Amino acid sequence: MSATPVRTPVGIVGAGPAGLFLAHLLHRQGIESVVLETRSREEVEGTIRAGVLEQWTVDLMQDLGLGDRMRREGHFHRGITLRFNGESWHLDFEDLTGGKRVTVYPQHEVLRDLIAARLANGGEIRFGVQDVQLHGLTTDRPRITYRNGDGEPEELHCDFIAGCDGSQGTSRQHVEGRTEYQHLYPFGWLGILVEAPPSHHELIYARHGRGFALLSTRSPDIQRMYLQCGPTDNAADFPDDLIWSELHRRLETVDGWTLTEGRIFQKNVIGMRSFVCDRMQHGRLYIAGDAAHIVPPTGAKGLNLAVADAVYLARGLEDFYGRGRRDRLEQYTATCLRRIWKAERFSWYMTTMLHTNPAEDPFEQRIHLADLDYVVHSRAAATALAENYVGLPLD
Ligand code: RFL
Ligand code: PHB
Prior knowledge:
Number of strands: 21
Enzyme class: oxidoreductase
Bound molecules: 8-demethyl-8-dimethylamino-flavin-adenine-dinucleotide, P-hydroxybenzoic acid
EC number: 1.14.13.2
Keywords: FAD, Flavoprotein, Oxidoreductase
Distance between the termini: 46 Å
Helix content: 25-40%
Number of domains: 2
Protein name: 4-hydroxybenzoate 3-monooxygenase
Low-confidence stretches: none
Mean pLDDT: 96
CATH topology of the largest domain: FAD/NAD(P)-binding domain
Oligomer: single chain
Strand content: 25-35%
Number of helices: 12
GO molecular function, one term: 4-hydroxybenzoate 3-monooxygenase activity
Radius of gyration: 22 Å
CATH superfamily of the largest domain: FAD/NAD(P)-binding domain
């Protein structure tokens, strides 16, 4: 027998960036919610992921009063470096975009801040739940059933349900009439975490005949680096000395610059795909973030795109509760998709331009080199890259 159902205006499935930002945005407008999360708080806060935050995401965190630690501990980058053909080029985003920068503040730190602040302002996040099931989505009283952390059945009665359960979640399966678009890439990334000081003050993206490499950072003591590898390669098959020799070859293409080595304490392989679900709502269910779309990591868009969906959904719900208007909710999918397809395009463009694709012929390889050459020599092309990287304005 299930305990007495709890009522909440908005039931949010998933405590990732989409779900937690949504909970904060709604709370700011006086709309309460309950977040259900299958993982424990420790797991959510301990999953180390990148955090290249677009300027407006940073501004939003500040507006929500969530920016204090990010301001102190985040790293502000005014641009990126592109390396190819043995040359290195700096793109100065601040100059190209009229003052916008990117902030490197890892995703798990963002989540830690959002969780702490939400619990402090009276919000409910139920961690460690199981068997989450959605019911009555085309009625005015949708419900979520689940088992709490002790395995007991519980029920949440809502006005709306937000499916923010990521790429492996099930909420997307409830969206009837959807079409799914997918593009697979014939390569992946071998990522490593290294105990070392930074080798450079900004990110370096390198295209090399032997494959792509990226130099990134997590903190002053921990660095993140990636090497292009096969899509199904196993991280354990890459000994440390092979990783370092490949990173040196692909990144040290410029005289006088050297990569600082350190102890590698984590290796993993990340697959690369682009995915879009072209309907993001069904009845009273709205899906947001990775539940609806995936981008390859080359454009650093995943987290920011999830937050943008949360902003659009919060606006729709604010109009519904504040003014009794449904038009923004009805337009939710269309509004999100305009931004999503542009982020998909940019992520695909960065990925194809910077990787060596074994399936491409020499003509196509030279086209990508011409693209890079164009970007670093034309202010117009550099500006287009910069304005996408720092984040297009929200509609
Ligand atoms: P998330 O972050 O996956 O959060 C979804 C949450 O839902 C929970 N969940 C459920 N909860 C309740 N009931 C269920 N039935 C549930 N099923 C799942 C999950 O436990 C999880 O906590 O999705 P969200 O909020 O849409 O946010 C999306 C971003 O997290 C994602 O786009 C980025 O992390 C993508 N991403 C990267 N983005 C970047 O911008 N730069 C990167 O370098 C970068 N690297 C990455 C990444 C994603 C990765 N994975 C594993 C998907 C590297 C990796 C490995
Ligand atoms: C990362 O730091 O993990 C990172 C940075 C930029 C990207 C992708 C990943 O484009």
